[in-house]
């Protein structure tokens, strides 16, 4: 099995790909159960005090991120594609039921794709792709710390789900 032949565009997309020692079913649970999502979704010392998952195409994917200073950032998106145990895709430019949503200055419009594959050792080959509509958005997201942030979040997911087994 291989990842979806999604055509990654290096000028517009950011990619995090790693193998982790947690089986795909546990990675899937972490991404689709709000109580688990709240425990790993933001790099510490940030927190995720609220998360909402309506796991269907057109359903809401919402997280609230809280900074160490107490500022909260509501991120509401819409699921585009769900392949149980293998692939999740959502976008920040649509709200529930595919309704276009307004964006605020400084928002990074993107579509996220999380893909999972089992490894021969019982772990997961994990790929996260952040798709942007222009090079400025991609650069902004990269400067915000995409690789460190999304990598830390994956580390936190693995730590959480390792203890869940």
Roughly what percent helix?
Answer: 25-40%
Low-confidence stretches: none
Q: In percent, how much strand structure appears in the residues? A: 25-35%
Secondary-structure element series: EHHEEEEEEHH
Shape type = globular
Distance between the termini: 25 Å
Strand order of the largest sheet: 1-7-6-5-4-3-2
Strand count, sense and barrel status of the largest sheet are: 7 strands, antiparallel
Rg over CA atoms: 15 Å
The averaged pLDDT comes out at 93
Count the strands? 7
Instruction: Note the total helix count.
Output: 4
- SS-derived structural category: alpha+beta
Verbal overview:
The chain is an alpha+beta fold and 165 residues long. Helix content is 27%, strand content 33%. The protein has 4 helices and 7 strands, in the order βααββββββαα. The chain has helices at residues 24-32, 34-40, 135-143, 146-164; strands spanning 13-20, 47-53, 60-66, 72-83, 87-91, 111-118, 124-131. The chain has a 7-stranded antiparallel sheet, covered by helices on one side.
Question: What would you say about this model in short?
Answer:
With 165 residues, this protein is an alpha+beta fold. It has 4 helices and 7 strands.
């Amino acid at each position: 099995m291989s990842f979806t032949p999604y055509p990654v565009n290096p000028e517009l997309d950011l990619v995090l790909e790693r193998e982790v020692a947690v089986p795909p079913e546990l990675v899937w649970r972490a991404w689709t159960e709000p109580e688990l999502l709240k425990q790993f979704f933001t790099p510490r010392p940030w927190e995720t005090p609220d998360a909402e998952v309506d796991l269907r195409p057109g359903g809401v994917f919402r997280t609230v991120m809280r900074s160490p200073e107490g500022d909260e950032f509501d991120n509401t998106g819409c699921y585009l594609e769900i392949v149980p145990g293998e692939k999740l895709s959502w976008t920040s430019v649509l709200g529930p039921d595919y309704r276009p949503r307004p964006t605020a200055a400084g928002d990074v419009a993107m579509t996220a794709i999380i893909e999972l594959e089992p490894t021969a050792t019982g772990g997961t080959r994990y790929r996260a792709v952040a798709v942007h509509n222009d090079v400025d958005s991609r650069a902004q997201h990269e400067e915000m710390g995409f690789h460190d942030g999304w990598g830390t979040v994956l580390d936190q997911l693995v730590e959480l789900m390792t203890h869940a087994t």
